[in-house]
Design brief:
By secondary structure, the chain is an alpha+beta fold. It contains eight helices and nine strands. The strands form two sheets. The protein has a five-stranded antiparallel beta sheet. It has a four-stranded mixed beta sheet with strand order 1-3-2-4. α3 crosses α4. The chain is globular, with a radius of gyration of 19 Å. The chain starts with 5 loop residues before the first helix and ends with a strand.
Length: 254
């Protein structure tokens, strides 16, 4: 039996005659007979409820998202749960820790797959690839693309790293600890889930109330724990603090 990736389902949806010309994620949900409700919730950011004995469903979204891009990603994530095979439970509730988390493990497999689906739905690789590879991948470029595609900075950084031909990775750190890493195809180095010191610029951003962004050369050993690279060599780091989420987002380029 042929196996399909989450991105394949997103591409198939975008190529459907009824949807291919729509850039409005809410219109896509409507065409799939999914109604959207904004609700007061402290426990989840998005939820999918399937209507029994029907091809319809309800997507509940937390009211008052801080960023429009994050709301759109959450909506696309729930559409992924609706479409992807094996995500067929009657109800699913997705927390803020699951939305836009790119840590791959068996426990969070469905959430990881829904994120991949949402990423391709909102940031199609065929559109993003030429834009990302036209110049060097930087946080400034990622910010511009996030505005262009109306997506969150995190989701845009992840997808940009996935399609770039550069050797780089995007790292999310929370409370000075590396939470997850997404790598470009030719980034073969290991970034451990460890506590960051001040030798990494991201570590310093956690201690500052005024500085929100930093970039420059740092020792490779500040981030990479791999025998393939000399820890004394330098890599390029760009980091931006996101205080509302208690996190720092970093792009590393070797």
């Amino acid at each position: 039996m042929e196996s399909h990736e989450p991105e394949d389902y997103a591409r198939a949806l975008l190529n459907h005659p009824d949807i291919q010309h729509s850039k409005d994620i809410e219109q896509i949900a409507a065409k799939l007979r999914l109604s959207i409700r904004d609700v007061d919730s402290a426990k989840f950011e998005g939820a999918l409820v399937r209507i029994a004995r029907s091809s319809e469903g309800i997507i509940a979204l937390k009211r008052n998202f801080r960023e429009a891009g994050r709301r759109r990603f959450t909506l696309a994530h729930e559409i992924g749960h609706f479409i992807l095979p094996g995500h067929g439970q009657d109800e699913c509730y997705c927390t803020s820790a699951q939305i836009e988390s790119w840590r791959k493990d068996a426990v969070r497999r469905h959430e990881f797959e829904a994120n991949r689906f949402a990423s391709e739905l909102l940031l199609p690789s065929k559109l993003l690839y030429p834009l990302v590879n036209a110049k060097e991948l930087t946080l400034a470029m990622v910010t511009e693309l996030a505005l262009e595609f109306d997506t969150s900075l995190t989701a845009t950084a992840v997808k940009s790293v996935e399609v770039t031909e550069e050797c780089c990775a995007v790292v999310c750190s929370v409370g000075r600890k590396v939470k997850w890493v997404r790598k470009s195809e030719n980034f073969h180095y290991f970034v451990p889930n460890t506590m960051l010191g001040n030798d990494a610029m991201a570590g310093g951003l956690f201690d500052s109330d005024s500085v929100r962004q930093a970039e420059g050369r740092v020792l490779a050993g500040s981030w990479i724990d791999d025998s393939k690279i000399d820890g004394r060599k330098e890599i390029w780091e760009e980091s931006i603090a996101m205080p509302f989420y208690s996190m720092v987002l970093t792009i590393l380029t070797v």
